[in-house]
Amino acid sequence: MILNRLTQAFRDQNWFAVAVEFVIVIAGVVIGFQFTQIAAERSDQAEREAALYRLHEEAEQAVAHFERMVELYDRSNDARFDALTRLSSGDFEGVETGWLTFGIQTTSLLPQVAPPRSAYDEVLATGLYAELGDIRLRQALSAYYRQIDFLEGQIEYHRDQVMRAWRSEHVTMVFDPDNESRNRSFEVDFEAAAQDPAFIEELTAANNSIRAVTNWWRSTLEEAQTVCDELARLTRQPCDPPDWEPYS
User: What is the value of pTM for the model shown?
Assistant: First the structure.
């Protein structure tokens, strides 16, 4: 339609009409481009908002994960303190051997650090990270993942260094049909262990290592909580970690 009018205007040498048609064409192109750009910007904004909400949910899960791990470490440290106190004094009257055994066994509590991170990896892969949220969020995310790397390094170091006192000759692994997950438990000859200074020394060294690792888990929990709080600020949703089952 426009092409026909332009052709006729050229034939008639109606330069005013030609100019008007050119203006209409250019205006149509510009308006069309603007609408396309607005639609693309809205799509990008929706993608960024969706990524923020996915990160928010993942941060809540991460906080719950680290809370659970810190709770486990705190319990194991309490049990190990009681075990060392009893072994050092040689007093086992009224003792709950299962509790003390748990403290000795958890000198090997050095698992891989594995919080949820699929949403974060997706943000990196899609190139959204630099446009996500604001500088406060990106600083919090950076500090959190640096802390995870540090924690992983410390755990690897202590795997090589810690003396696993629960593998002593005073500790025996036995078949336990009531333990549905592994069908095994441990028994400790506390009377003999109390007479073995080397065992108590190894357990003391292991206790020192595990307590240090506990503090690094707690620091990682604090960084995860900061990320969750920053995402809560941006999404205007509370940071509400899911309930978790404590270790028995």
Answer: 0.79
